[in-house]
Amino acid sequence: MSTIYTYHAECPALAEAPAATDVLLVYDTSAGRTKTITADYLAGAVSAPVVTTATSLTITAAAHANRTVRIDSAAPVAITLPQATGTGNKYRFVVGVAATGTASTIKVANATDVMRGYAFAVTTTSDNAEGFKTSATSDTISMNGTTLGGVVGDIYEIEDLLTGVFSVKCFTAPTGTEATPFSATVS
Predict the structure, then answer these.
(1) What is the residue-wise DSSP string for 46-63?
(2) Burial state string for 55-90 with b = 16 or more CB within 10 A and e = fewer than 16
(3) In angstroms, rounded to a whole number, what is the distance separating the alpha carbons of residues 160 and 112?
(4) Which contiguous run of DSSP H or E holds residue 156?
(5) Which positions ≥6 away from 31 have C-beta within 8 Å?
(6) In sequence order, what are the beta bridge partners of 164?
(7) In this structure, what is the dihedral angle of CA atoms 104, 108, 112, 113, given to the nearest 10 degrees?
(8) Phi, psi torsion values for 71, nearest 5 degrees
(9) Of 2, 6, 183, whose CA–CA distance to 106 is shortest?
(10) CA atoms within 13 A on the CB side of 122
(11) CA dist., res. 67 & res. 38, Å (int)
(12) Among the residues of the chain, which ranges form H helices?
């Protein structure tokens, strides 16, 4: 038979909580006591964007799944996805600082994973969208700040769809003559 606990009067952790906020109680077995976390803090930690200015970033499910990663580096950033295992985890990348020079990349982690999907690029001459689709061997998305996208506001959505397969959707506004951002570079 399980024990039912009520925390309203007997839980000293409630006295530690900020006034006028929702509080979640967590029992810390290592400390042998109940602690609190505010719902606002928990919601912010889960949904707050991850901002990167590093030149390389290894994506993990624990730190990045179902969150937005904002790329805030003009220098090339090499982003490596985790292995595709069909978890359904979604990874969203938004460009906060336009790439310059050589291209930033989002790549799969191994030679067997591939990307399936498309990129929509708003053309520089007519504001119409031009589409690019992946090939059977696509495993890399490149962003150079001009023809391949990678300008402020571009969005790259990637989902761990199946074992070995990422579903990708890219929404870009290249500043030069549009070209496919997809290639096969992982060996």
Answers:
(1) HHSPEEE-SSEEE--HHH
(2) eebebeeeebeebbbebbbeebbebbbbebeeeebb
(3) 14
(4) strand 155-162
(5) none
(6) none
(7) -120
(8) -90, 110
(9) 183
(10) 9
(11) 20
(12) 13-16, 39-47, 61-64
Terminal-to-terminal C-alpha distance of the chain:
56
Comparing 18 with 139, which gets the higher pLDDT? Answer: 139
Q: Quote the CA–CA distance of 84 and 69 in Å, as a whole number.
A: 18
Residue indicated by tokens 């959707």: 169
User: Which residue bears the tokens 């290894």?
Assistant: 58
pLDDT in tens, 125-160: 777 889 999 999 999 999 998 899 999 999 999 999
Residue 32, C-beta contacts closer than 8 angstroms, at least 6 positions apart: none
Contact 174, 146 (CB under 8 A): yes
The tokens 């730190």 sit on which residue? 63
Question: What tens digit of pLDDT does each residue of 20-62 get?
Answer: 566 667 777 777 777 776 665 555 555 678 888 889 999 999 9
Structure tokens at 36: 């609190």
